[in-house]
Design a protein that fits this description.
Structural class: mainly beta
Number of strands: 31
Radius of gyration: 18 Å
Largest sheet: 4 strands, antiparallel
Length: 340
C-alpha cells in the first residue's frame, strides 16, 4: 500500500476490488493520528491505487457494504483522538465520499456494524473512551439517510462483535466495560424491533474482549481468543454458540493464545485464524491456524509478517487478503494473500 495502516477497514466491493479506509500510520491508540486516505486493491492485477480522501480522518471505525454497492463508514476516532459521531458514504460509481447523517446516540469507536436483511445497517456498542463501553444502538436507513433508535443493549460493550443469524436475528457477543471482559451475549431481532435486546440466559465460560466471531455453515457461531482480566491473560479458548438452543459449548483450544486477531470463514466450512497479540498488547504473532471440520486445529505456514489490528478479507476470486496492522515495532503497509 502507499500508506501504513492499522485500525483501518477493508471491504470487498461488488466488482471485486477492495476498498481500504482510514486507520493510523503510527498506532491504534487514542493519541495516534488517523489518516483520511483510502486505497483500492485489484486482485486480478495485484495492484493498488489511491482512492478519494475521507471528509474526516478516522481510525477504529466501521465500514459496511450496502445493498446498492456503496459503503457506509461510521464513527471511529478523529484527528485529536476524540470519538466521532460522523458518518460518510463512498459512492462507487462517482468514486467520491459524501457526508451521511451522524449517528444520533453518541460518538463512538471500536463499535460494530452489520447489514440487516432489510438493507439497513445496525450499529451497536463501542466506546467514547478506552475505559468503558456504550450500550446504545441505532439503525441507519440509506434510502432516506436517517437513523432510528434500536434500543439499548442490556450491557455496555466496547470492542464487541455482531453476527447475523438466520431470520434477521443479530447476536452481540462479549466486549468490555468498566467491569472487565463480558461473558454475556444478547440478541436483537430485526423483525421485532419493538422487543429490543434480549440477554441470553447462558453465559460464555470466558470473558471475551478482542475476540473474533465467525458464522459457520450449519448456523453456529465460533468465538475465538480474548484478553481477560488486568493486566490481562491472553486466551486460546474457543466456544460455539448454538442458536437452536441459545447455548454455548466449549471447543478444542486453538494451538496458540491470541486476541485482536482475524478469523475468516472459508468456503470449505473451515475458519482461518491469523495474527493477533500473544501477550497483553505485546508480541504480535505471524502464526496462522485453521479450524477444521472435525473440530480440531491445525497450524499452517505463518504469514510473512507478524500482524495485529490488521484486516482479513475473503476475496471471491478465492483467497484471503491480509492487510496492514502492526508487527509490534512499526505499522505495516504490506499485504499478503492466503490461498486455501
Amino acid at each position: 500500500m502507499q500508506t501504513r495502516r492499522t485500525g483501518h477497514t477493508a471491504t470487498e466491493l461488488q466488482d471485486g476490488r477492495v476498498l481500504v479506509v482510514g486507520g493510523s500510520s503510527t498506532g491504534n491508540n487514542p493519541g495516534d493520528s488517523p489518516t483520511n486516505t483510502t486505497e483500492l486493491y485489484t486482485a486480478s492485477a495485484n495492484s493498488w491505487r489511491p482512492g478519494p480522501n475521507l471528509g474526516t480522518a478516522r481510525v477504529a471505525h466501521t465500514a459496511t457494504l450496502l445493498e446498492n454497492g456503496n459503503v457506509l463508514v461510521v464513527g471511529g476516532r478523529g484527528p485529536a483522538g476524540e470519538a466521532l459521531s460522523s458518518a460518510e458514504i463512498y459512492n462507487v460509481d462517482a468514486n467520491q465520499w459524501t457526508p451521511a447523517s451522524p449517528i444520533p446516540l453518541g460518538a463512538r469507536a471500536n463499535h460494530a456494524a452489520i447489514l440487516l436483511p432489510s438493507r439497513k445497517v445496525l450499529v451497536a456498542g463501542g466506546g467514547n473512551s478506552e475505559l468503558d463501553g456504550l450500550d446504545t444502538a441505532a439503525i441507519y436507513d440509506p434510502n432516506d439517510d436517517s437513523w432510528t433508535n434500536a434500543g439499548n443493549m442490556k450491557v455496555e460493550r466496547n470492542v464487541l462483535t455482531l453476527t447475523l443469524l438466520d431470520g434477521g436475528v443479530v447476536l452481540a457477543i462479549g466486549g468490555f466495560n468498566r467491569y472487565g471482559a463480558e461473558t454475556t451475549a444478547e440478541v436483537y431481532d430485526a423483525k421485532q424491533p419493538d422487543a429490543g435486546w434480549r440477554l441470553l440466559g447462558e453465559r460464555m465460560e470466558d470473558g471475551r474482549n478482542g475476540h473474533a466471531s465467525t458464522l459457520l455453515p450449519l448456523g453456529g457461531i465460533l468465538v475465538t481468543g480474548s484478553l481477560e482480566g488486568s493486566p490481562g491473560t491472553v486466551l486460546k479458548t474457543v466456544e460455539l454458540f448454538d442458536p437452536s438452543s441459545d447455548s454455548w459449548t466449549p471447543q478444542a483450544d486453538m494451538r496458540e493464545a491470541r486476541f485482536l486477531h482475524t478469523a475468516t470463514a472459508l468456503p470449505s466450512g473451515e475458519v482461518l485464524i491469523a495474527g493477533g497479540y500473544s501477550s497483553p498488547y505485546a508480541k504480535p504473532r505471524a502464526s496462522a491456524e485453521i479450524f477444521r471440520r472435525d473440530g480440531g486445529w491445525e497450524l499452517i505456514a505463518p504469514m510473512a509478517s507478524a500482524r495485529v489490528s490488521h484486516t482479513a478479507t475473503w476475496l471471491e476470486s478465492g483467497s484471503v487478503l491480509m492487510i496492514g496492522g502492526s508487527d509490534g515495532g512499526v505499522v505495516l503497509n504490506t499485504a499478503e494473500r492466503y490461498v486455501p
